[in-house]
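During the reporting period the student researcher (J.K.) took over the structure-prediction task from the postdoctoral fellow and processed the backlog of single-chain submissions. One of the processed entries is reproduced below for the supervisory committee.
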Amino acid sequence: MSVLRSDRGPAEPQFVLTAMELYTSVLEHYHKFPKRHTFSVAQVLLAKAGEILDNAVEGNSFPVTNQHEAQMRRDFFLLALTKTRSFCNRVEAITEAQNIQLIDVKVMENWMRLAHWEIGLLKGVMKSDRARFKNLP
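J.K. obtained the following structure tokens:
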């Protein structure tokens, strides 16, 4: 369905919204971690989620007019992608810890769902950027 140009409003890209949702979800559950695991686990997860959000926003924040800027945008998205994979690895390691129940399993499943969705969105935007910016000077 098409929308008239006059009715269109500004829209955030979905990968930025997903990164924001992941960060806010980790932030909401940050204080629910046991105190002894706050610095070893919770801060690391919050920092990774923050880096994902920062790199996604930075990659989307400047207009691309040449190949160098397109490569800079791609580099930010690659950083966001690697940080998202690292976040997934940390969450998987926490869930596989045998005798440590840090936080509700459903919360971690939600984080993994959001992280995997973010990976797919970032891959898609990098693929579309490759086709979109291939003819720039």
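The committee noted the following: The helical segments are 14-29, 38-60, 67-96, 105-132.
J.K. will present the remaining backlog at the next meeting.
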